[in-house]
Design brief:
12 helices, MetI-like fold, cell membrane, MetI-like_sf
Length: 280
């Protein structure tokens, strides 16, 4: 019988430390009491009253919309940056570009938020845009911040790829953009999905940047929760957080299942092609 060693114990403690607060939050979302720290029995009333809280639901849909747009733009910019850094051997300013791409990873969010705020104010004074700070400025700030994470993920995937297939396609007359779209993109699809999910989660979770570059009528969910916590956590917040946790878990499991099936099918096709070549 295998012994329960020190490593397994540390793993168990780590999992409990990470997931126990989430479990407690989900349990208290079914609390019948208005006081979140006092258990008053089981009830689903706070899930029903969510739709009556227009301010909270508005911030939820606003955050989801910004996170969706951020994920798309961050994947596009991060993929281009990763491709330039990994596929172009030498060019003037490559080290500078690499440093600029990774700078948001180590830059404090307070500094980034303040600099973006000053930038938007200066642009408004010079060219009259943006007219006001809102969803557009939050989206730009989140894209600037999350593109670095996507670039790092995609760069690591591109460095692991065998470029022989790309070179063979170009030798057969395929143009570089066609090779990129039909060969490179499918091979780095898992990293693109992972980068998009990370950008979505980081945008949905961000408080500091949104606090600097938001304006009236553009309050996001983290800002709404943070302002409510100072006056006491409302039961609806536990309910909406539990729903978001459920949606994220289902989406993550679905993507894992789809990618696992695709990877299994790809390995099967490679095995069959090798078998065909060996027979021939």
């Amino acid at each position: 019988m295998k012994r329960f060693g020190f490593a397994n114990l540390m793993l168990l403690i780590g999992l409990i430390f990470i997931y126990l607060p989430l479990v407690i939050m989900v349990i208290y979302s079914f609390n019948a009491s208005k006081l979140v720290t006092v258990w008053g029995g089981w009830s689903t009333q706070w899930y029903g009253s969510l739709w009556e809280n227009t301010q909270l639901m508005g911030s939820v849909f606003r955050s989801l919309k910004i996170a969706f747009y951020t994920a798309i733009s961050a994947v596009a910019l991060g993929t281009v940056a990763a491709f330039v850094l990994t596929r172009i051997p030498r060019f003037h300013g490559k080290s500078l570009l690499g440093g600029m791409v990774t700078a948001p990873l180590v830059m404090p969010e307070v500094i980034t938020g303040l600099s973006l705020l000053l930038l938007f104010v200066a642009m408004n004074n010079l060219i009259g845009w943006p007219v006001e700070r809102g969803m557009m400025t939050i989206w730009i700030a989140h894209t600037t911040f999350t593109s670095s994470y996507v670039a790092i993920l995609v760069s690591s995937r591109l460095r692991e790829l065998d470029i022989s297939m790309e070179e063979a396609a170009m030798d057969l007359g395929a143009k570089p953009w066609k090779v990129f779209m039909q060969i490179t993109i499918p091979m780095i699809a898992p990293s693109l999905v992972a980068g998009g999910m990370m950008a979505f989660a980081l945008s949905l979770d961000d408080l500091v940047l949104a606090s600097f570059v938001s304006g009236p009528g553009s309050t996001t969910l983290p800002m709404e929760i943070f302002s409510s916590v100072r006056l006491g956590v409302k039961p609806e917040i536990n309910a909406i957080a539990s729903l978001i946790l459920l949606c994220v878990s289902l989406f993550t499991f679905s993507m894992w299942f789809i990618m696992a099936k695709a990877e299994k099918r790809r390995k099967k096709e490679i095995y069959q092609s090798k078998k065909t070549l060996s027979v021939a």
